[in-house]
Amino acid sequence: MTRSLRLWPLLLLVAACARTPRPSADLANKYHDATIRQIGTAQDERNTAALLPFLTSANPTYRREAALAFASVQAPAAVPGLIPLLRDADLSVRRAAAYALGQTGDSTAVDSLRGRLLKETDNAVCRYEHEALGRTVTRSSLPELWRVEALTDTARASALALGLSRAALRGLISSESIRRTVLVLNMPRLPERARLVAMVGLSRTRGYDADLARLAQEMLLHVAQKDRSYAVRAAAATTLGKLAAVPAASATASTAAIPAASGTAAAPATSGGVTPAGVLARLATKDPDYRVRLSAIRALPFDAETYSASRKAVFNALSHDRAPVALTAAEWLLAHAKGESGPALAALADGNKQASPRVRAALLQAAVRHASPAARPSLIETIQKRYAAAPTVYEKSFLLQALAEDPASFDLLKAEAFAAGQAPVVAGNALGALLTMRRQADFPAARHADFAAAMRQALASGDVAQLGTAAEALTDAKLYPQAQPDDLAALRQAQAKLQLPREIEAWQGLQQALDKLEKAPKPTPTPVATAQQHPIDWAVVQSVPLGQQVRLRTSKGIILLELKPNEAPGAVASFVTLISQHFYDNLYFHRVVPNFVAQGGDPRGDGNGSAPYNLRSEFGDLHYEEGSMGLASAGKDTESCQFFITHTPTPHLDGRYPIFAQVVGGMDVVHKLEIGDQILGIELVK
Fold it and tell me: If 277 and its partner were Cys, which of 57, 306, 363, 395 is the partner (CB 3.0–4.6 Å)?
């Protein structure tokens, strides 16, 4: 016992060191090489002609770097130069070439990729090639994915999983691709990432629910309950939601018995009476990981036969100590409640004092939506009082959504939308609430003209959030059956006043509206900023060593990040520069989607703000895992200052949003973040 006590000081010291950010390693990033900087500049400038010669460089490092650059440039003209690199003697060059071909997405590469898969001996390169094939196949060439025998080899099966998933995420699905995905998922010892991407692909199928039920139900029921990975269980739960409403006759098991799913115990030959709805209800209340519970709640069925069991699970979740679980339950009630009393739902908001303002507001919104006409006025009065007393603009924005449920709130919403000096968060949400209200079946015809006047006032306001809402309204054929010349003129006048590139997202929204209303034959290209307007500051990039950490202080705690200068030099340079200017100090997390992302860094605080410049997209060879930090965008080459952190692996974001940092400490803080939590400051760890 005495000896144990003597060890306590040492143990405490070790624990303290574990919590303390380590000084960033002084290991130079690759941009100290002048030639790699030259390649990086050509990538940033989207200069295909300058990059092409490097694909044939005698130095494999430069061949690899040029190929990786084309993963961001995505120029079809580079495909003929990339294809020969699939045979390069250097493995890293072959991987980079396959990655770039996949990112470019040109179907002319399909034959070459399939041909190389037949001959490639390196498993890692095979994974890259199969994933690239999934990104480049067309509907007619989809079978090329499985014409390479893969199911006798775990490594090859993993590669096939990537290809099938990438095709599914692009909407390229067939009964046979579903069958192949199920066979892959039942391969023994399939790695977690392969299981995850395959399951995510199944979760995003559209129009094949009967095939999913027939081919995949047994496997899904098993994986959702038994897989070791929470992310795989969550994706399986999402997919089960598609099957919960499929008639039982369509869910007949496939004729061939299927082996055990990877990472699980042996799967039963039949469901034995276990149903998708039953498993989802169990996951919603019993799974140890809150993200699986979230996915299960979202997927719960709501037909007459299953509503009672789903309701029980939802009401159980409302009292969960994790705010995202309670919020998801409240949102389920908002969307699917049947036969519920409005006052009873409002009482739930009052009865749970531990619930966050967002949860309480969602319950109040559900209360109004499902209340009888006689009960509505008192509920609206209660919400209006809470709105007046709400301490933050974000809490006000939640309550505005509740007020949108009753047309009697029209005048209040309009007044809040256009009040002088109104906070952007409130003004934008108030106008959005008006649009929500207008789309309701009981919106009075007597107020149609008042709504149209509000939209014209929004177009004249110049506020980017309100411009987007007005553009959305004008393109809704149910609200505006015929485009009027005055509306088109107002859209063009509003667009002409925007400051580019800062307000590029608003410009896009207005242009999309004009294209739709004027029946343009193809979308008008977005005038993205060029590299000359904001070139990469290579001196800043070179000052960031590999392993450089950043301390993100929030009102919920500290998050420790590690920057990725090799993969995203422009994003890292911009972020470091903004940090030095204290740009992010006292900004907010304005968007939190449970089991997806927490997003912040907007100077307006509502998701419509930007720095004075845009960046070019940098799609480094990275995957979105739990805690990946990416740059938000309104499309390729429109990134700026807003960032997001993922709660869970999100394969569908890979190669679409730049990753420039990774959480290495404080992930528990990320999971606690809510809309309205503050960024106190960000600094480099010295």
Answer: 306
